[in-house]
């Protein structure tokens, strides 16, 4: 059961990464991550996997532009119409209270 506790600790302490290391990722690690992704549960058990591994810097920048454009045109407007209230309007306890305790 110690392994499950380690997993939950990782899930609760992992944060979004904004500054990534420029070090190259070894191919063996990429394969391991992709294998873990294909083992993950998905809706309807359909396994319609689509992975994109890009190592070339110029191609990464092109993909970044395409995703940004798609986000700005499709996803961004959806979030804009349902924006949360500003931080000043939220109570101090709501940020730390889990939604199942409200």
Polypeptide structure, described:
The chain is mostly helical and 102 residues long. It has helices at 2-13, 27-39, 57-80. The chain is extended and about 45 Å long. The protein starts with a helix and ends in a 22-residue tail after the last helix. The model has no long low-confidence stretch (mean pLDDT 79).
| Annotation field: number of helices | 3
Largest sheet: none
On the 0 to 100 scale, the average pLDDT is 79
Whole-angstrom Rg: 19 Å
Broad structural category? mainly alpha
Task: List the SSEs and their pairings.
Layout: H1 2-13, H2 27-39, H3 57-80
Short structural summary:
With 102 residues, the chain is mainly α.
Keywords:
102 residues; mainly alpha; extended
């Amino acid at each position: 059961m110690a392994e499950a506790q380690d997993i939950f600790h990782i899930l609760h302490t992992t944060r979004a990464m904004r500054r990534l290391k420029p070090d190259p990722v070894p191919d063996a690690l990429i394969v391991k991550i992709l294998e873990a992704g294909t083992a993950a549960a998905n809706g309807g058990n359909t396994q319609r996997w689509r992975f994109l591994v890009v190592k070339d810097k110029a191609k990464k920048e092109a993909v970044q532009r395409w995703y940004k454009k798609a986000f700005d045109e499709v996803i961004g407007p959806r979030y804009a119409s349902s924006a949360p209230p500003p931080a000043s309007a939220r109570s101090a306890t709501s940020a730390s209270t889990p939604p199942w305790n409200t």
